[in-house]
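Why should sequence recovery work at all? Because a backbone constrains its sequence more than one might expect. Tight turns favour small or flexible residues, buried strands favour hydrophobic ones, and helices have their own preferences. The token representation captures these environments compactly. In the example below, the structure is given first.
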């Protein structure tokens, strides 16, 4: 029997990034509390009564967008809800990853279960069926401007509820009608407001932002780890990471990174070997890692806090409080997410920028290790071309950093005259994360090579453990080879997070602040 602490209660418990990810990949069970069910059904009955009423309430007995003043008869309210799913299914481009679609289903389930949207419990059960039976809708990547939420992608997400659209089911793509026939299910007949509640909301932007929080966190952790390895391989000073220095400028991210770097480097024989060298200062890419990585950590924290507020918010429209108290507002607008997503995009790009600079430093050959990180060059180009790749990726990131939220194009005949563009912002932020992951993987290769070139001197115990694990997958390079294979192996190591398990930094004072709980 599953222990209650492992069960999430839709609409009652607080949803976090970690729980959202666990629910989306079936690592956590979820159900509804009896009091939540009562609230959901009570709210749905209010909507039924409003639909029969003559008092106009947006989206229940009126048209949508610029048609908000057009009254809809009680007999037509259900067809209105079906039509909105059809008419708003205008997405284009490649389908988004099924991981993101599953997240969208989780996020919508929780938002609707908060009990202010007026949908019936039966509708929520069908959404949950899609999630639990891996009948995953096909959702195109483009078409949302992030204003009335993510109208187009959410319409595609929920077309299968009414028997339309396509799904990925039983390991293949098929029409929803075929999937329902196989499962022995009928299409859902939508009630008043249900179509509108399904497509209003920020779940496309938010699903991408949840993945951004997760993947950016991995980049941040590896930036500290790989940066420490490079610093030791280049025999940089540990003094800039001293705790007392950062207490004088106590930004949480900088303090956290300085603690990480100091603990990773302490007791390194490489460090001790140049303790009395004549070098006064290291370049910024080594010396200023706490300030640069730390600022990116602070941006990540801003994003995480915003995301977790949004995870537990009602973002459709109108909101149903009581039969005589409904509000047509703007909780669906993507701006609260769009701005911190753009900020995070820039922050993760900076991790790639400074990593590329450290890679360049490691190739110069002016710190007691061979130029291009190889003893015999001339006939061999060594690691020279790897920095070409990081330069290309870092430059691409700079272009992708243009803030999507700086743009706005009026839609809905001017009714929706300011939009967030958060959907595009979230998609490109994940591309920047992917590029930065590759840059950090290349730095990992260079740092491991530099440490080998310092033998018989050794790094600290945690960094030696990491180095040993790298060498299980990627051998020391004595001559030119096809380095793209090494890059892919290093990228897989970074993405898996396996190297982080070999180091222990959890007792730093700022640890809990920068973790995903």
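From this structural description, the recovered sequence reads:
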């Amino acid at each position: 029997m599953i222990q209650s602490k492992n069960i999430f209660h839709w609409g009652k418990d607080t949803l976090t990034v970690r729980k959202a990810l666990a629910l989306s990949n079936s690592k956590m069970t979820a159900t509804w509390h009896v009091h939540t069910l009562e609230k959901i059904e009570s709210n749905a009955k209010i909507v039924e009564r409003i639909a029969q009423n003559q008092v106009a309430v947006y989206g229940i007995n009126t048209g949508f967008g610029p048609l908000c003043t057009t009254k809809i008869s009680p007999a037509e309210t259900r067809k209105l809800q079906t039509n909105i799913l059809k008419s708003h299914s205008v997405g284009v481009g490649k389908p988004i990853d099924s991981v993101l679609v599953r997240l969208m289903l989780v996020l919508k389930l929780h938002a609707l279960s908060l009990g202010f949207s007026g949908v019936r419990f039966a509708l929520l059960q069908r959404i949950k069926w899609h999630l639990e039976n891996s009948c995953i809708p096909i959702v195109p990547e483009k078409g949302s401007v992030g204003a009335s939420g993510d109208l187009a992608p959410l319409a595609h997400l929920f077309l299968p509820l009414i028997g339309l659209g396509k799904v990925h089911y039983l390991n293949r793509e098929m029409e929803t009608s075929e999937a329902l026939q196989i499962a022995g299910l009928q299409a859902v007949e939508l009630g008043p407001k249900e179509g509108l509640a399904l497509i209003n909301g920020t779940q496309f932007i938010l699903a991408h932002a949840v993945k951004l929080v997760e993947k950016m966190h991995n980049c941040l952790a590896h930036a500290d780890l790989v940066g420490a390895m490079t610093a030791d391989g280049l025999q940089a000073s540990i003094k800039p990471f001293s705790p007392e220095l950062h207490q004088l400028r106590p930004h949480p991210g900088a303090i956290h990174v300085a603690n990480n770097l100091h603990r990773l480097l302490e007791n390194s024989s490489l460090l001790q070997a140049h303790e009395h060298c004549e070098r006064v200062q290291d370049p910024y890419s080594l010396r200023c890692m706490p300030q640069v990585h730390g600022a990116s950590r602070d941006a990540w924290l801003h994003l995480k806090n915003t995301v977790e507020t949004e995870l537990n918010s009602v973002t459709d429209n109108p909101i149903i409080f009581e039969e005589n108290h409904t509000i047509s507002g703007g909780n669906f607008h993507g701006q609260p997410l769009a701005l911190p997503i753009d900020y995070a995009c820039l922050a993760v790009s900076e991790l790639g920028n400074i990593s590329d600079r450290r890679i360049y430093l490691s190739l110069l050959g002016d710190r007691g290790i061979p130029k291009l990180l190889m003893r015999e060059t001339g006939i061999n180009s060594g690691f020279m071309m790897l920095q070409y790749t990081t330069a290309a990726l870092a430059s691409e990131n700079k272009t992708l950093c243009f803030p999507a939220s700086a743009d706005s194009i009026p839609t809905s005949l001017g009714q929706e005259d300011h939009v967030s563009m958060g959907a595009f912002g979230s998609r490109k932020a994940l591309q920047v994360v992917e590029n930065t992951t590759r840059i950090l993987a290349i730095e990992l290769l260079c740092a491991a090579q530099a440490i080998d070139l310092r033998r018989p001197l050794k790094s600290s115990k945690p960094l030696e453990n990491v180095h040993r694990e790298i060498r299980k997958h990627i051998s020391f390079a004595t001559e030119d080879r096809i380095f793209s294979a090494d890059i892919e192996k290093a990228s897989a190591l970074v993405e898996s997070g396996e190297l982080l398990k070999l180091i222990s930094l959890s007792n730093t004072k700022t640890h809990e602040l920068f973790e995903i709980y």
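A few observations help interpret the result. The beta strands are 7-9, 29-31, 92-95, 136-137, 140-142, 166-169, 172-175, 319-322, 325-327.
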